[in-house]
UniProtKB/TrEMBL annotation:
<protein>
    <submittedName>
        <fullName>ATP/GTP-binding protein</fullName>
    </submittedName>
</protein>
<dbReference type="InterPro" id="IPR040442">
    <property type="entry name" value="Pyrv_kinase-like_dom_sf"/>
</dbReference>
<keyword id="KW-0460">Magnesium</keyword>
<dbReference type="InterPro" id="IPR039480">
    <property type="entry name" value="C-C_Bond_Lyase-like"/>
</dbReference>
<keyword id="KW-0479">Metal-binding</keyword>
<dbReference type="Pfam" id="PF15617">
    <property type="entry name" value="C-C_Bond_Lyase"/>
</dbReference>
<dbReference type="GO" id="GO:0000287">
    <property type="term" value="F:magnesium ion binding"/>
</dbReference>
<dbReference type="GO" id="GO:0003824">
    <property type="term" value="F:catalytic activity"/>
</dbReference>
<dbReference type="InterPro" id="IPR015813">
    <property type="entry name" value="Pyrv/PenolPyrv_kinase-like_dom"/>
</dbReference>
<dbReference type="GO" id="GO:0006107">
    <property type="term" value="P:oxaloacetate metabolic process"/>
</dbReference>
Length: 396
C-alpha cells in the first residue's frame, strides 16, 4: 500500500518533494499509526463488504473498520458477525489475478467474547486483519484487561494462521464513555486508562476519540457548519485526552473524531473555504464541489485536529477520504524545518530555512520527530504544491 498510489508517477514527481513510503500490514507500528489517515467505517451488516473493501482500496483508502457495534441493530449482531467473517474469508481466498492491495482492516467489537468469536469465524482470513477496535473503552472493574486477555488468547491460538506468523494484532481503543465526560470523574478515568494502555503498550496501535458518544452524554449533535471544537463541553474532553495521552514520553497517536456529515442541506452560515487558493490553482469548480458536499466544515475540523495534536480521522463516507489525506501531507516548509531540528539536541535557536519563523532546537524536537514520521507515511509536498493541488489529484 501507499498513499496517493492512484496518482501517476509523472504527476507524483511534480506534486511531491518526497513520495509517501510503502506500507505493509507488518510495517513498524508507529508508521502504521501515523499512516491510518481517514479510517472508513463500514456497518457489519452491509451487503457486499468484500467488494466495498477492494473498491475503496483502489480509491486510496488505507484503513477500514468493519463495525459490529453502534452502526448495527442489536437484533442484527449474529448476521453481521457471519457477514463480516464471510467477507474476510472471501478476501483471503481471492484468485491470484485479482488486485492484491487491501487497506488495513479492523473489526469493531462489542465484547471480549465477540473478539474471540470473530477470530474463530475468520479462520485463516485472520491473517488479513490488523486488529480490533474497542468501543467505550474504560478501565473500570477490569473491563479493559478482559479485552487484552482475549487478544492474548487469539495470539496464542491463531498466531500461525495463514501467513501471519508472529505478526501482532493490535487494539485501537475508543475513548467515549460518560466517565470521561463528567468533570467529577474525568481525571480519574483518564489516569486509569493511561495506566492500562501503558501496561499493554505493544498491543496498542492508536487511540481514537468517539465524539458522537461524548456529545450524546449531553444530548448534543453538531451541525455540519460547526466543528467539534465549537461544542465546548466536548472540546474540553478532547483537550484533557491530549493532555493525558499526548505526551511525547507515551508516544500515542490520537486520531480525530468522526465527521458524520455528507449531505447538501441548506446553509445557515457562510462557507468556510477561502476562494483565493482555489482561484490561484485554477480550481474554482473543486471549491464548489467541496462546499456542496459539506466538506468545507470537514477541512476546518481537520486543521483544528492537527493543531490540537490529533492525526488521522474517523470518517463514514468515501468522499471524506481524499480530503483527510490531502491535509495530512507534510508541507515542504514543515519538512525542511523538521530536518533542521531533529537530532539537534544541543539546544539553541535559529531562523527557519524559509526565513519566516524561529526554530528552537529543544522545544521543537518532539514536533520534528512526529513530522518526519508523518512525512514517511504521507509524503512531502513539493515547494510549490498546495493542498488544492493534492486534493484535485486525489479526487479524480
Amino acid at each position: 500500500m501507499r498513499h496517493f498510489r492512484s496518482v501517476s508517477d509523472a504527476e507524483a514527481g511534480t506534486l511531491f518533494h518526497r513520495l509517501p513510503g510503502e506500507l505493509r500490514i507488518d510495517s513498524p507500528p508507529d508508521l502504521l499509526a501515523a499512516a491510518l489517515g481517514a479510517t472508513l467505517y463500514v456497518p457489519g451488516d452491509r451487503p457486499e463488504i468484500a467488494r466495498d473493501v477492494t473498491k475503496q482500496a483502489a480509491r486510496g483508502c488505507i484503513s477500514m473498520v468493519l463495525c459490529l457495534e453502534d452502526s448495527i441493530a442489536d437484533s442484527s449482531v449474529a448476521f453481521a458477525e457471519a457477514n463480516v467473517a464471510g467477507a474476510i474469508q472471501s478476501l483471503w481466498e481471492r484468485p491470484p489475478g485479482e488486485p492484491s492491495e487491501l487497506p488495513l482492516l479492523f473489526i469493531r467489537v462489542r465484547t471480549p467474547g465477540q473478539m474471540l468469536r470473530m477470530a474463530e469465524l475468520c479462520g485463516s482470513g485472520l491473517a488479513l486483519l490488523s486488529g480490533f477496535v474497542v468501543p467505550k473503552f474504560e478501565n473500570d472493574a477490569g473491563y479493559a484487561d478482559r479485552f487484552f486477555e482475549a487478544l492474548g488468547r487469539i495470539h496464542e491460538r491463531f498466531g500461525d494462521a495463514g501467513d501471519a506468523g508472529a505478526r501482532r494484532l493490535r487494539v485501537m481503543p475508543i475513548l467515549e464513555s460518560p466517565s470521561m465526560v463528567h468533570t467529577e470523574t474525568r481525571t480519574g478515568a483518564l489516569r486509569s486508562i493511561v495506566d492500562v494502555l501503558q501496561e499493554h503498550r505493544d498491543d496498542i496501535l492508536a487511540v481514537r476519540i468517539g465524539a458522537t458518544d461524548l456529545s450524546s452524554v449531553f444530548g448534543l449533535r453538531r451541525s455540519r457548519e460547526l466543528t467539534v471544537y465549537d461544542v465546548k463541553v466536548v472540546a474540553a474532553v478532547i483537550a484533557d485526552i491530549v493532555n493525558v495521552l499526548g505526551r511525547p514520553s507515551d508516544n500515542f497517536v490520537i486520531t480525530g473524531p468522526v465527521w458524520e456529515h455528507f449531505d447538501t442541506s441548506e446553509r445557515i452560515l457562510r462557507p468556510q473555504l477561502r476562494l483565493t487558493p482555489f482561484t490561484d490553482a485554477n480550481e474554482p469548480e473543486l471549491r464548489q464541489r467541496l462546499m456542496l458536499g459539506g466538506l468545507d466544515g470537514l477541512i476546518k475540523e481537520i486543521s483544528l485536529d492537527q493543531a490540537n495534536g490529533l492525526l488521522g480521522k474517523t470518517v463514514i463516507h468515501p468522499t471524506h477520504v481524499p480530503v483527510v489525506h490531502a491535509l495530512s501531507v507534510v508541507s515542504h516548509e514543515e519538512y525542511v524545518d523538521a530536518v533542521a531540528i531533529v537530532g539537534n539536541v544541543g539546544g539553541g535557536a535559529s531562523a527557519s530555512p524559509y526565513r519566516n519563523k524561529m526554530n528552537e532546537m529543544k522545544p521543537h524536537q518532539s514536533w520534528a520527530e512526529k513530522t518526519l514520521v508523518r512525512a514517511e507515511a504521507f509524503g512531502v509536498a513539493a515547494e510549490d504544491t498546495t493542498f488544492v493541488d493534492l486534493l484535485e489529484a486525489s479526487m479524480r
